[in-house]
Amino acid sequence: QQQVKQSPQSLIVQKGGISIINCAYENTAFDYFPWYQQFPGKGPALLIAIRPDVSEKKEGRFTISFNKSAKQFSLHIMDSQPGDSATYFCAASNNAGNNRKLIWGLGTSLAVNP
Amino acid sequence: EAQVTQNPRYLITVTGKKLTVTCSQNMNHEYMSWYRQDPGLGLRQIYYSMNVEVTDKGDVPEGYKVSRKEKRNFPLILESPSPNQTSLYFCASRPTPTAYNSPLHFGNGTRLTVT
């Protein structure tokens, strides 16, 4: 059972456009929602994260929008650049006992055409 | 430089030949974990460790072993590899097991092929 559903699986955007990746979750106990970015040949790295007490978080061209009632959150990449081409993973977590476990989406492969 | 180091980066082996993938972190992190990444299946956790001598199964532990004798090292052992263990493996660490804003730091991966 996949607890975090990510879409689309792949995305092609023109340079300067807006990239939008969506995630939906089921467990209302989740209290932390990070996005990780993975370049080819590298491990994922934390890009941006949000807690459910805010509806939006912005860091440069990257913004997370969070809708608690709909149990959805999304990553928006403004003015997308070829250097943003990567795989993006959303995740959700909460403390389960003495361990904070991350539940991952399946990833979105983003290609930004020059 | 703070990092998670995995070795080797690439490994081709045959069915049944025991192998070990090493992982070391220099950030004094308590928590370490192994993931495998397969197309269409995302990142799946194999094993994790919350501190020295404390390990536990993740979501796909079958066919794997781990040990945590020192804080910095967390090797992944495949006692009898099979072709379905062909995958891209990542070691990751984070400062604590429980803090919500404790980000995972990943190594650069080990691509394993079992023939």
Shape of chain B: globular
**What does the oligomeric state look like here?**
heterodimer
Q: In terms of per-residue confidence, which ranges of chain B show pLDDT below 50 for 5 or more consecutive residues?
A: none
Structural class of chain A: mainly beta
Determine the N-to-C terminus distance of chain A: 38 Å
Radius of gyration of chain A: 14 Å
Largest protein interface, residues of each chain: A-B, 25 and 25 residues
Helix content of chain A: under 10%
Main β-sheet of chain B, in a few words? 7 strands, mixed
Structural class of chain B: mainly beta
Q: Helix and strand string of chain A, N-terminal first?
A: EEEEEEEEEEE
Strand residue percentage of chain B: over 45%
Would you tell me the overall average pLDDT of chain B? 95
Query: Helix tally of chain A?
Result: 0
Q: What portion of residues of chain B is helical?
A: under 10%
Percentage of residues in strands of chain A? over 45%
Average pLDDT over all residues of chain A? 94
For the terminal residues of chain B, how far apart are their CA atoms?
A: 36 Å
Following the backbone from N to C, one meets helices and strands of chain B in this order, namely: EEEEEEEEEEE
Give an overview of the whole structure.
The complex is a heterodimer of chains A (114) and B (115). Chain A has 114 residues and is an all-beta fold. In chain A, 0% of the residues lie in helices and 59% in strands. Chain A is built from no helices and 11 strands. Chain A has strands spanning 4-7, 10-14, 19-25, 33-38, 45-50, 56-59, 62-67, 72-77, 86-96, 99-104, 108-113. In chain A, strands 2, 4, 5, 9, 10 and 11 form a 6-stranded mixed beta sheet that branches. Chain A has a 5-stranded antiparallel beta sheet with strand order 1-3-8-7-6, with no helix packed on it. In chain A, strand 9 and strand 10 form a beta hairpin. The radius of gyration of chain A is 14 Å and the shape is globular. The N and C termini of chain A lie far apart (38 Å). Chain B is mainly beta. In chain B, the strands form 2 sheets. In chain B, strands 2, 4, 5, 6, 9, 10 and 11 form a 7-stranded mixed beta sheet that branches. In chain B, strand 5 (42-51) and strand 6 (54-57) form a beta hairpin. The chains are: A mainly beta (114), B mainly beta (115). At the A-B interface, strand 5, strand 9 and strand 10 of A face strand 5 and strand 10 of B.
